[in-house]
Amino acid sequence: MSDIIKIAVDAMGGDGSPKKVIDGIIHNYSKEKDNFYKIFGDKEQIFPLINNKIDEQNFEIIHTQNQVKNTDTPLEAAKKGKDTSMWLSIESVKKNEADVVISAGNTGALLVIAKLNLKMIENIDKPALSALWPNKKGMSVVLDLGANIECSSKNLFDFSVMGSSLYKSLFPDDTPSVALLNIGSEELKGNEIIKETYQLLNEKKSNSFNFAGYIEGNELMNGNVNVIVSDGFTGNVALKTAEGTANFITDELKKALGGSIIGKISSFLNISNLKKFKKRLDPRLYNGAIFIGLNAPVVKSHGGIDYIGFSNSLSVCNKIVKGNLIDKIKSNI
Q: Using an 8 Å Cβ cutoff, are 231 and 183 in contact?
């Protein structure tokens, strides 16, 4: 594998693009000099933003004025043709001109266009949307977060293999521990699909991960397991609940510490601990969801995230390519 990681970037997707995307690239380049950015979008807007900010040997702009909008349905996005910044960036991975693709654009469109361009990994039926979540001991990979509302036991088994491969790519020194998200920890709890998946994972012992059984929603942040598997409906509800809870806690803490003289003095005295707390819950640190199951990695940055968050998702791109994610899934499946 080449030392240079080639990242195809859809520069026109998401809020505040292309400026946010280009600022994210500039910030990422200041930390990681081994990335080459293939930037797809309107050159007249992009070039003035990036010119002289990073070495010209580390980027290329592929011009197109056509783009997928946030309001487009997946079908409308696919019908726009093969010259949108999203389509062209994905196609560059298909042609082996880039190692990974990233977009902050329309999630549904990204999944559909990726599936139209990229083949599935052999023996995998459905791709999953996965992301990193903080826990007490470090990080967890959680999937599926919304790509598949209904899943079979085989799908959930595949997600276990793919999620553990992703975790191993990002954290090569750790052995993944996999659990199924369920309404109870007892073996008899849950629907038939969950129970069948439990049996599959119990019977098919794997060298690539340990199976830890079931996990309940209130244990997601404990850090006792680091790969959490569910269908897309359950996973998306869990994700939105966790995001809402984190926002609620930080907002209420700001009110409590800023509302009175005692609160302000208390916050001043505890400023170091409060900064640590705020950083721990900063969503920008965990930006970069990954569609896995396709023959190349596709990274989805949150549409509303700022340039720091986009920069962090570019770091995720770098790590999963260096960690040979696709090869790991193929060898483990």
A: no
| Selection from 104, 109, 118, 102 nearest residue 76 by Cα | 109
CATH number of the domain bearing residue 309: 3.40.718.10
* DSSP helix, strand, coil percent of the chain (3-state; round to 5): 45, 20, 35
Question: And the tokens for 272?
Answer: 């170091």
- Mean pLDDT confidence for 47-51: 95
Same domain, 306 and 241: no
Size of the chain in residues? 333
Q: Residue 53 belongs to what domain range?
A: 1-119+294-326
- The β-bridge relationship of strands 128-135 and 100-103 is unpaired
Neighbours of 155 (CB within 10 A): 22
* More confidently predicted of 266 and 319: 319
Look at residue 285 and tell me whether its pLDDT is greater than 90: no
Distance in angstroms (rounded) separating the CA atoms of residues 168 and 162: 10
Residue 295 CB-density burial (10 A; 0-12 exposed, 13-18 middle, 19+ buried):
middle
Per-residue confidence (pLDDT) for residue 1, from 0 to 100: 40
